[in-house]
Specification:
The complex is a heterodimer of chains A (about 650) and B (about 140). Chain A is an alpha+beta fold and about 650 residues long. Chain A has 18 helices and ten strands. Chain A folds into four domains: about 160 residues, no CATH class; about 210 residues, no CATH class; about 100 residues, no CATH class; about 100 residues. In chain A, strands 2, 3, 4, 5, 6 and 7 form a six-stranded antiparallel sheet that branches. In chain A, strand 6 and strand 7 form a beta hairpin. Helix content of chain B is about 55%, strand content about 0%. Classes of the chains: A alpha+beta (about 650), B mainly alpha (about 140).
Chain lengths: ~650, ~140
């Protein structure tokens, strides 16, 4: 019954989305404005119903109900409960249900909490949100039903890909989707504002918190995914320029640009058309990403359950929504004025430079990701990977970070070049000193990009703190703190990336129990190999100790795990975190002469990559609270005065 | 063309499949003693695609074929061959697909030109936004 109830909830939610769209269309275009009164409650009910369907699917997974096809193909009764739970979205149908659930809940939130938007724009926004949701309901119900039954039910399921059986699965996809799909709100805002021709500063102030919230979630999702891949895949890499990673990076780049342009629109009532365009692009990138992942058109580690028919379905949705939004943009944007041009040296120009560079990186990632498809049409199968993206996007990203440090030090409206350069003097000197030090100490052993990365990271790190200088820190607004922390996070993350690629020490050895291995300034003692068993796996575990510079020896246990359903071997790296880096030890295979392959990396400051990412997200949260709290206070004061 | 490519791939991988019962390649997981050479080999391996994996470089893969290719690369580097020469050899043998670095075929030129085009386009758009006249 649970599966039928879930399916019914999904159908009802789809019907409500249709109703929501119809109410808005008749209400706004057919001037039957009394219909608009029902839109908000319909939107909330729709969100609640999708949420219910999603909870019911989770329940089916937790109960290991083997009469449901999806549970059979993706779960197993012996699996620990956490992976039964998280396994709900570790497959195509479940992840698409998560997608529409987030979309439905985001729509509910807009219906319930959005107060700043003008009424017609608010309604048009909810109509747009319903229109997008509707397509994905149709997709889910007609080609990816998560609640389909199987008769007769098999005795047990086929299990979940062991690489996914990790706490990362409980955290990474939901946060990523909240960000990915949360951007649909910005898309709907843009469409709504185009429909009612109300693109102005007030619109930007209303949209900003939604963009910030989605961006924070997307940031966290990407950081979590990167760290998960880093420790789970067992090779110490944290970003592979895999098509699916690019698919999550592209909306992030667009959302980051949007976040900054929306501030220009809110503060100076300029960049109207561009901001609306970015809002459309950001969610379009989310949809393009979903298409790339779900269609299996590009080879990727994320490609589970791909199906060409589903691919064409999503491609059709993509064409309708993106094409529709751009057509509307082209039709209506003539009526939207861009506002007066900027002075060359001004905060506005710096933010436009930020947008320009982010968009160029976005364009390059998009071109690089899709290019293999183009050449394949000409009969040539090529790969575009790290060597391309690092070399092309790397230098532009460094420029972007320098602009990031200079932007907050430049005044709105008009500033003087000499004054801005003067404010950049200290960070500049710090960067030059770093350059001299690194060149003196590591010349010849460090590549040019990591070298520049370190220099920029340290210079920009200092520069990003500059907006706080000579200020009363207690009276500095929260959103300024948010900006400073997010910008510092970018520098910290870049520093980690540069340090990892410049200074990582790799050691591959074949060792016997009883051997001692020396690498970097670590001493590892390989004691023995032990068989151990977990809930649904058995493993060979190496008992080792690691000590540094004659210090205390600490036990570490890298494992090689065997899963029975489906039969797979995974490596569980042993990680030892120190403030200045991470020791990463992997147990490989046994060689013919009874030795064991062991891979060891010492990665100086590698954790800064994710620490920086978390700082970026934290900065977003502070900015969100800071801006909104200010709004609440103003509203409260106005009420008190009246 | 695709069928031909698949056929060539099969031809190329056939000896590897036959080898799977043999002891693993000597330098699959063994570093070159000279750190400078190992660094060179490692840099190349990071840009070569593992052909039996979903989407990984041979430097990041447990697949046996990736191990064989790592061994081949290390041995050639030790023999004094230049990385770009080895890449060319791998491309000739396995096709352009094997190299994560898009090579210089004319069809790939737009890829390397894209950053310049995009930046210029952006600056052109930007110019319209900046006030003309007195420049500090």
């Amino acid at each position: 019954m649970i599966a039928e109830a879930g399916l019914a909830a999904l159908w009802l939610a789809g019907a409500l989305a249709l109703l929501q769209l119809a109410l808005v269309t008749l209400g706004l275009a057919g001037s039957k404005s009394e219909l608009l009164g029902a839109v908000r409650s319909v939107a909330v009910s729709q969100g609640v119903l999708t949420g219910l369907a999603f909870l019911l699917l989770i329940l089916l997974f937790l109960r290991s109900d083997m009469s449901v096809m999806l549970v059979v193909t993706n779960s197993h009764s012996m699996k620990p409960w956490l992976y039964k739970f998280a396994g709900t979205w570790g497959n195509h149908e479940g992840s698409m249900l998560l997608w529409v659930t987030v979309m439905g809940l985001a729509g509910s939130a807009v219906a319930l909490f959005e107060r700043a938007l003008k009424r017609e724009t608010h309604m048009a926004t909810l109509g747009a949100q319903a229109a997008i949701s509707l397509g994905f309901y149709v997709f889910l119900l007609f080609s990816s039903n998560p609640f389909a039954r199987i008769d007769p039910p098999p005795p047990d399921g086929q299990g979940l890909n062991p690489l996914l059986q990790d706490p990362g699965l409980a955290f990474h996809p939901p946060t990523l989707y909240l960000g990915y799909v949360g951007l649909s709100v910005a898309f709907s805002f843009a469409v709504g504002a185009l429909l009612t021709r109300q693109v102005d500063a007030a619109f930007a102030r209303a949209m900003r918190p939604w963009v910030l919230a989605a961006w924070v979630m997307l940031t966290l999702g990407i950081v979590a995914g990167s760290y998960w891949a880093y420790y789970e895949l067992g090779w110490g890499g944290w970003w592979f320029w895999d098509p699916v990673e690019n698919a999550s990076l592209m909306p992030w780049l667009a959302a980051t640009a949007l976040l900054h342009s929306v501030t220009v629109l809110a503060t100076r009532d300029a960049l109207r058309a561009w901001t609306v365009m970015l809002a459309v692009i950001a969610f379009s990138m989310s949809m393009v990403g979903t298409f790339l992942v779900r269609s299996g058109i590009l080879t990727s580690v994320h490609a589970f359950a791909v199906d060409p028919e589903r691919g064409s379905f999503i491609l059709a949705l993509l064409a309708i929504y993106i094409g529709g939004a751009f057509a509307l943009f082209g039709w209506r944007i003539g009526a939207v004025r861009e506002g007066a041009p900027f002075e060359l040296v001004s905060r506005e120009t710096m933010l436009v430079v930020n947008n320009l560079l982010l968009s160029v990186i976005l364009g390059l990632v998009l071109i690089g990701t899709l290019y293999p498809l183009l050449t394949e049409a000409f009969g040539l199968k090529v790969s575009v990977g790290a060597p391309y993206f690092d070399r092309i996007a790397g230098p532009i990203a460094l420029l972007l970070l320098i602009a990031m440090a200079a932007g907050p030090l430049t005044r709105w409206r008009r500033d003087r070049f000499g004054l801005v350069a003067g404010r950049m003097l200290v960070p500049g000197i710090v960067a030059l000193v770093t350059l001299a030090l690194v060149v003196a100490l590591a010349w010849g052993r460090i590549g040019i990009l990591p070298l520049l990365g370190l220099v920029v990271a340290i210079g920009v790190g200092v520069g990003s703190l500059a907006p706080l200088w000579k200020r009363n820190l207690r009276r500095t607004p929260l959103f300024t703190w948010g900006m400073v922390i997010a910008h510092l996070g970018c520098a910290v993350s870049l520093g980690g990336m540069a340090s990892d690629s410049a200074f990582t020490v790799e050691k591959l050895v074949a060792a016997r129990p009883g051997d001692t291995i020396e690498t970097a300034d670590w001493t590892l003692y390989f004691d023995k190999i032990m068989p151990i068993a977990g809930d649904n796996w058995t493993a060979l575990q190496a008992d080792m100790t690691a000590s540094r510079g004659g210090g205390k020896a600490i036990a570490i246990h890298p494992q090689s795990r065997f899963f029975a359903s489906p039969p797979t071997t995974t490596t569980e790296a042993a990680l030892m975190t120190r403030w200045n880096g991470q020791l990463y030890v992997v147990l490989g295979q046994e060689t013919d002469d009874g030795r064991w392959q062991i891979r060891i990396w010492w990665k100086p400051f590698v954790t800064f990559i994710w620490l920086g990412g978390i700082m970026i997200a934290l900065g977003g949260v502070l900015a969100l609270i800071g801006r909104e709290r200010r709004g609440w206070l103003l509203k409260w004061r106005a009420r008190a005065a009246a | 063309m695709r069928a031909l490519l698949a056929f060539l791939l099969m031809l190329a991988s056939a000896p590897v499949l036959a080898q799977s019962a043999l002891p693993p390649a000597p330098y699959a997981d063994r570093q070159i003693d000279d750190p400078a050479l190992e660094k060179k080999a490692r840099a190349l391996m990071e840009t070569i695609r593992c052909l039996t994996c979903q989407s990984q470089s041979i430097a990041d893969s447990n697949a046996s074929m990736a191990g064989d290719m790592r061994s081949e690369i290390r041995q050639r580097i030790m023999a004094g061959e230049q990385p770009e020469h080895i890449r060319a050899w791998l491309i000739e043998r396995y096709g352009d697909w094997v190299s994560y670095e898009p090579t210089a075929a004319p069809i790939l030129w737009p890829l390397w030109g894209a950053p310049v085009v995009l930046l210029l386009l952006g600056l052109l758009l930007l110019r319209g936004r900046i006030r003309k006249g007195k420049r500090p």
